[in-house]
Specification:
The chain is about 45% helix and about 10% strand. By secondary structure, it is of the alpha/beta class.
Length: about 600
């Protein structure tokens, strides 16, 4: 039977540790969540923690074992699946009494859920026979949330053998996919993020677990995270040519998100969602035609009609009204609520010190930084232990981090083998080069700042789990990095899973001064105008070539088109139209100002 979530939202992947065990915490309540499977050292640490929890003996999978990385991932996913299945069976046999897990399951469901309505009917009847029948039926309807995994396609470092040759099908992303494919998870999905990786997608073609059965149903599904329609079409067609069906396109705001931010060329969330709404049938039919032709050519089962395709969205959602509008106006099937769940210990894994920082965070504390060694902009909370440790190293003349995990080792400026630009080795080599270059002081300081800004993410994004579960991570490194979206500044207190779910469904509100919070579309627009001005500021003093001039022209044109779209957008519930319109007018002035400066600069 095709998986259908009992909830209207999901918890996206966050960092490495923050959702590493979220399914163990929320899946039994029907809530889907996503585990990052890139960091196998962290996964092995979670095996250490959860085997005793499951009353099973832990046997280490050491780095001496062949294909240890895939084996760790497979085993951990199987362990999580076992724990969740046992939790669900326990809920199914629980009594319908105040405070019980089964009552919590049904009370958290959306109010318009048919199952929720039957639950209310059951609690309201005095007919013993009817009550028993309804209880039996309700128990049969309990469905765990999907246990999904995330593979960031850019994290695909080659692994080398003893002869210094890359191991075939041994790269980071491929071994992660291999580990997931071999797991016992069913009604599950892999989420590919950060763009297309042909090598990874080619390997996916060989994984039979992603094939539909004769009824057109999947054991394991493919989800592609995209920032626009064009990306969805390109990646969907590429995979269809491999005989792989994309079951969901997960649209994420380019800038109003946590973690790595992949800015579009000024395309805003609203117009992007509108394009998906208008072209959805075209997208599905185009991909289906290619997909079916491939299946026929391969001699596989082919189908008379397309498999279901979900369109979901995430990035900066903060209120019931925003969430409901995405569902009703754009036909979104599920919304991703990430950053707010960082303040829900029942759902995510965040250490107490970092939780306190999140609760106190202000707008100026969350920055779109250049901290990531990937060279991609990265949302970052200042004042974390990782931030303070980095500054202390710089102050002591020992910049850079010990590079123990090496997942972000892609730089070959000074070495044959790639190294990480946040590493001690790279930063020492780069600083020495800058010192020998004889640069003007201002230019030297700017380039030095760019080097020193890079930060170790592998350890920093994993350590929260080590701190929460009192387990050592690597070489006594304890610093924590966290990467919330800008939306975090509107959530200022730790809340329960029940409370956050009630907030999402409009049954309560956890945001103080909610009237002062800009609408998610306005917040994203503000981030894009800031980004645009920052880009232009970096180009000041340099001659703009035709390519760069065209970039600014396209960017400002797309922003202006987006602003006009929002002016004409009907039906945004509970919105102060005057404030909304004023924000659009102010943003347009900023865009026009950049357009004038670009023209003058050329």
């Amino acid at each position: 039977m095709q998986y259908s979530s009992p909830h209207k939202f999901h918890i996206p992947v966050m960092g490495l540790a923050y959702t590493i065990d979220s399914p163990v915490k929320v899946a039994r309540y029907g809530i889907a969540s996503v585990i990052s499977i890139v960091e196998d050292h962290l996964i092995e640490m979670m095996r250490v923690h959860y085997y005793p929890v499951a009353n099973k003996e832990y046997y280490p999978i050491t780095t001496a074992e062949p294909d240890y990385r895939s084996k760790r991932i497979t085993d951990y996913l199987n362990l999580v699946n076992t724990i969740v299945q046992e939790q669900v069976e326990k809920i199914k046999t629980a009594a319908f009494e105040a405070g019980s897990e089964i009552v919590k399951y049904f009370t958290m469901l959306p109010d318009d859920s048919p199952v929720k309505q039957l639950y209310r009917q059951m609690t309201g009847t005095n007919d013993v026979e009817e009550k028993q029948k309804l209880e039996t039926y309700l128990r049969s309807q309990i469905t765990p949330g999907s246990i999904d995994v995330n593979i960031m396609t850019k994290l695909d470092r080659n692994i080398y053998d003893k002869e210094n040759q890359p191991i075939e099908d041994g790269s980071d992303a491929i071994t992660a996919l291999k580990g997931y494919a071999a797991s016992e998870l069913s009604n599950s999905a892999v989420v590919f993020s950060a763009g297309m990786n042909p090598r990874l997608y080619n390997y996916l073609e060989n994984c039979k677990g992603f094939d539909a059965d004769e009824n057109g149903e999947f054991t394991k599904r493919v989800i592609i995270k995209v920032s626009d329609y064009r990306s969805a079409l390109i990646q969907g067609k590429f995979l269809a040519k491999k005989g792989i069906w994309v079951s969901e396109f997960r649209i994420e705001s380019g800038l109003n998100c946590g973690g790595h931010a992949f800015a579009t060329d000024g395309y805003l969330m609203g117009p992007i969602l509108e394009e998906f709404k208008e072209k959805r049938d075209e997208l599905v039919s185009t991909i289906f035609e290619i997909y079916n032709q491939t299946l026929m050519a391969k001699g596989k089962i082919w189908f008379c009609k397309p498999h279901p395709v979900k369109i979901t969205a995430q990035g900066g959602i903060g209120t019931f009204e925003e969430d409901d509008f995405l569902h009703t106006h754009y036909g979104i099937e599920s919304t991703g609520w990430g950053t707010p769940f960082l303040l829900v210990p029942e759902a995510t894994t965040v250490d107490d010190e970092t939780l306190e920082l999140l609760c106190k965070s202000k707008r100026e504390d969350v920055v779109l930084s250049n901290n990531s060694p990937l060279g991609v902009r990265f949302h970052y909370l200042k004042g974390t232990s990782s931030d303070l440790e980095k500054q202390e190293r710089i102050k002591n003349g020992k910049p850079g981090s010990p590079c123990t995990e090496k997942f972000l080792s892609f730089n070959t400026e000074f070495t044959e083998q790639p190294i990480c630009s946040a590493s001690l080795k790279y930063q020492n080599l780069k600083i020495a080069e800058l010192q020998a270059a004889g640069l003007p002081e201002e230019e030297y300081q700017q380039q030095l700042s760019d080097v020193l800004e890079k930060e170790c993410l592998c350890v920093g994004l994993s350590n929260p789990a080590a701190k929460v579960y009192h387990l050592p991570f690597v070489k006594n490194l304890e610093a924590v990095t966290i990467c919330p979206g800008p939306n975090i500044v509107h959530f200022s207190k730790v809340v329960s899973l029940q409370t956050m779910t009630d907030h999402i469904y409009g049954r309560t509100n956890v945001i103080e001064n909610v009237s002062q919070r800009p609408h998610m579309f306005i917040a994203e627009l503000g981030l894009y105008t800031q980004y645009l001005k920052g880009e232009f500021k970096n180009d000041l003093g340099k001659p703009l070539d035709k390519k760069r001039k065209k970039y600014y022209e396209e960017f400002t044109k797309n922003l202006s088109a987006g602003i006009q779209y929002y002016r004409e957008l009907p039906g945004i519930a509970n919105l102060n139209k005057k404030l909304f319109t004023e924000a659009l007018t102010a943003a347009q002035k900023e865009v026009d100002g950049v357009s004038v400066l670009v023209a003058e600069h050329c």
